[in-house]
TrEMBL record:
<keyword id="KW-0547">Nucleotide-binding</keyword>
<keyword id="KW-0067">ATP-binding</keyword>
<dbReference type="GO" id="GO:0005524">
    <property type="term" value="F:ATP binding"/>
</dbReference>
<comment type="similarity">
    <text>Belongs to the ABC transporter superfamily.</text>
</comment>
<keyword id="KW-0813">Transport</keyword>
<feature type="domain" description="ABC transporter">
    <location>
        <begin position="4"/>
        <end position="234"/>
    </location>
</feature>
<protein>
    <submittedName>
        <fullName>ABC transporter ATP-binding protein</fullName>
    </submittedName>
</protein>
Length: 234
């Protein structure tokens, strides 16, 4: 079952007189339950693609169909609703709110969905347990290591039970040991729930843990590689 369908996608940025083709005709299908890595050198268009799939930016041309919905046809207000209801985000810099503890950070997107206070605190705690942070519920972001903060970020993305999770260089600020832990955690959780994970990374090594590796150069897909080996993240 295809959950993300991209057809003939273009993104052109105008820089004065010159045009930058950040995406130059991308076609792509992503299936339910798939862990997909988008890889390629810096400036190749990875973030641009992810941002468009996630409904953060409008394409210049082309189609993005997510769970049967044409994302490119939504207006700003509809996009906000789409992002809140359908997708989860994991960021390189965690993007936690510094003045909120772990539970409050995870509960925040649930409040946007109108969930009551007691219920969202309960749900936030469940997800913090799931990512191994039972002892850090009331810690503030600056009282946690990078790996712990990213676990809060993962819990926050997952707590809304999204169909699709987008992660842009999620381990970019972590050391290699913590990177493996965080990657394994994301992989295990999305597999168990049959969720779709789309991860951008410039690191070919990390991409090898995905089910499929999509390589982009100069705004074009240059290869799509099925990864049949059972990734050993131990
Ligand atoms: P990557 O994520 O692979 O590093 P990006 O998607 O960030 O690449 O960028 C792709 C290309 O588009 C680059 O040439 C970049 O400079 C350009 N670009 C990205 N965002 C903008 C923008 N807001 N305005 C102008 N050019 C941009
Ligand atoms: P990791 O190996 O996961 O990156 P660190 O070595 O950074 O962890 O941190 C080890 C321990 O110290 C963790 O239990 C973490 O909670 C705690 N810790 C890290 N940074 C801070 C901080 N700024 N304030 C309080 N505790 C911290």
């Amino acid at each position: 079952e295809v959950v993300i369908r991209v057809r003939d996608l273009y993104k052109v940025y105008r820089m004065g007189d010159t045009k930058v083709y950040a995406l130059n005709g991308v076609d792509l299908d992503i299936r339910r339950g798939e862990f997909c890595a988008i890889t390629g050198p810096s400036g190749s268009g990875k973030s641009t693609l992810l941002n468009m799939l996630a409904g953060l930016e409008h394409p210049s041309k082309g189609e993005i169909v997510i769970a049967g919905k044409h994302i490119e046809k939504l207006n700003e207000k509809q996009l906000v609703t789409f992002r809140r209801e359908r997708v989860g985000f994991i960021f390189q810099s965690y993007n936690l709110i510094a003045t909120m503890d772990a539970v409050e950070n995870v509960a925040l997107p649930l409040s946007f969905r109108g969930m009551g206070k007691a219920k969202r605190a309960k749900r936030a705690k469940e997800y913090l347990k799931l990512v191994g942070l039972e002892r850090f519920m009331t810690h503030m972001p600056n009282q946690m290591s990078g790996g712990q903060q990213q676990r809060v970020g993962i819990a926050r993305a997952l707590a809304v039970d999204p169909q699709i999770i987008f992660a842009d260089e999620p381990t970019g600020n972590l050391d290699s040991k913590t990177t493996m832990e965080v990657l394994k955690l994301m992989q295990t959780i999305v597999r168990e729930r049959n969720q779709t994970l789309v991860m951008v990374t410039h690191d070919n090594n990390l991409a090898t843990y995905a089910d499929r590796i999509i390589k982009i150069i100069d705004g074009k897909i240059v290869s799509i590689e099925e990864n049949h080996k059972e990734a050993d993240l131990e």
